[in-house]
């Protein structure tokens, strides 16, 4: 009887896996980034992001989309660019609101600092944890656009209480 349940479970799992749709893609776009904190005044730094993604369609209107991005962030202070370049890994839950066109995307983002250009303004942290949320729109089966807000939840500096804030506007292709 246990073997029968095991065989049934394996067959059911295999059916779920074959029903699952997997799409790969590339994306890129603009970042409007700043650092935010108490007694810290700065302006937006306009930069960019680019990377790859995989979308796992789990249910009719629900997918999981992990991404691997290069993201240039930071801020502008007194017309000087302070840059923090990250490898970011957002893992987004996507809820399709209208027939696979418009999606609400939310989830955590894990970022690892690659390089910095802060001109001795402060000592940076090497890891950034953030919450990401936004909207995506599938223009066609392969072409999409996204708008996302990423709010840092961990400190970007070892000395000051500041966090990353980034608005991302993206275009991409799915295969």
CATH topology: Porin
Mean pLDDT across all amino acids: 88
Rg over CA atoms: 19 Å
Strand content: over 45%
Number of helices: 1
User: How many extended strands?
Assistant: 8
Give, in spatial order, the strands making up the sheet with the most strands. Answer: 1-2-3-4-5-6-7-8
Shape: elongated
Alpha-beta content class: mainly beta
Unreliable sequence segments: none
Residues in helices, as a percent range? 10-25%
Description:
This protein is mainly beta. It has a single domain (21-174), classed as Porin (Beta Barrel). It contains one helix and eight strands. An eight-stranded antiparallel barrel has the order 1-2-3-4-5-6-7-8. Strand 2 and strand 3 form a beta hairpin.
């Amino acid at each position: 009887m246990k073997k029968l349940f095991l065989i049934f479970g394996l067959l059911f799992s295999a059916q779920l896996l074959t029903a699952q749709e997997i799409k790969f893609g590339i994306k890129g776009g603009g970042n409007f980034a700043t650092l935010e904190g108490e007694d810290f005044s700065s302006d937006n730094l306009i930069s960019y992001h680019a990377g790859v993604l995989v979308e796992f369609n789990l249910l009719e209107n629900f997918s999981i989309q992990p991404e691997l991005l290069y993201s240039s962030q930071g801020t502008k202070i007194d017309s000087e660019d302070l840059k923090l370049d990250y490898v970011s890994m957002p893992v987004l839950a996507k809820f399709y609101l209208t027939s696979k066109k418009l999606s609400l995307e939310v989830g955590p983002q894990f970022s690892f600092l690659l390089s910095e250009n802060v001109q001795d303004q402060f000592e940076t942290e090497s890891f950034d944890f953030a919450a990401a949320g936004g909207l995506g729109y599938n223009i066609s089966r392969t072409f999409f656009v996204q708008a996302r807000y990423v709010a840092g939840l961990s400190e970007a500096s070892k000395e000051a209480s500041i966090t990353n804030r980034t608005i991302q506007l993206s275009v991409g292709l799915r295969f």
